[in-house]
Specification:
SH3 type barrels; 116 residues; mainly beta; six-stranded mixed sheet
């Protein structure tokens, strides 16, 4: 595996020898062991680490639990399960996320009028 250009990795896979064989894999998901993952920089995280975080507002109001992350192509969106309410969809952008504490397993959200 090597970086072809920023954000694009090229893989060599045993048994995949032709362009046609490569085309059959187009769009497939690739999984790696956590121990083989690239080290993270400050303010970086793996999406799977967000699943299960407790979500609350900056004033301490509990929202619910992160159940899923939707990748929109522009930014990620947290799907937060709320008790007795529809799921909340919270864009992962600085305007809405006040704090993301993986150690404390919590995400703190600035309230979004109409979304919470």
């Amino acid at each position: 595996m090597h970086e072809h250009k920023p954000g694009v990795l090229l893989l060599t896979l045993r048994g995949i020898e032709t362009r046609e064989a490569v085309d059959e894999l187009r769009g497939a998901e690739v999984y790696i062991r956590q121990t083989d993952a690239a080290p993270l920089g400050e303010d970086e995280y793996y999406l799977h680490d967000l699943i299960g975080l407790a979500a609350s507002t900056v004033d301490g109001q509990e929202i619910g639990t992160v159940r899923e992350i939707i990748q929109t192509g522009v930014h990620e969106v947290l799907v937060v399960t709320r008790p007795n309410q529809p799921d909340a969809l919270i864009p992962v952008v600085r305007d809405f996320i006040a704090d993301l504490d993986l150690t404390g397993r919590r995400v703190v959200v600035r309230p979004i009028e109409g979304l919470l």
